[in-house]
Amino acid sequence: MEVASPHLEEAEDAILSFGQGCEGEPLMQWRLLEKSIQALRGKTDRGTINLNTNGSSSKHVGKLCNAGLDSIRVTLNSPHPKNYDLYHRPRGYLFKEILNSLIQAKKKNIYTSINLLVFPGFTDREREVSGLIELIRKTQLDLVQLRNLNIDPDLYLEAMGEGEGIGISRMIEILKKEFPHLQFGYFNRTKESFTA
Q: Which CATH superfamily is domain 4-19+45-191 in?
């Protein structure tokens, strides 16, 4: 609170994020986050409070939304459960819970995004692109963050199987045509740029 509160109250385009993908899953501490968000929002409605998560519990995501969360980003490598499971190896949750978390957040007017781990030649396969279109349609996403998946290419393709991509730029063109209001980027957005 000593650090976060002044930041939200005073910084230009202030944003506070729980979880960045390297230090563990923040939903494991959802009670602490709920209390923290409530306390911060009790002091100010200024700034953006964001959650970077695997989306493993829509129930807890809903509680954080109710507490005053502004945005959520869910990380995934694929819109298909089989491919997601091969890479992420989830424990204690299923892929459908990720969709439920995004849908739950959107119903509560939270700005939603995915952190799409991009591997050219896989992410841009026609089946992956069509699955992504279906996921975006179901969840009404606001933003797709594109991140390079840094992994041994032989190992990844061995796990994901052979296939041919259409090109990342072509994939983005298709998504933009299908969803004219969908945003693309690399970083979480602040409230001031949700509609930019």
A: Aldolase class I (3.20.20.70)
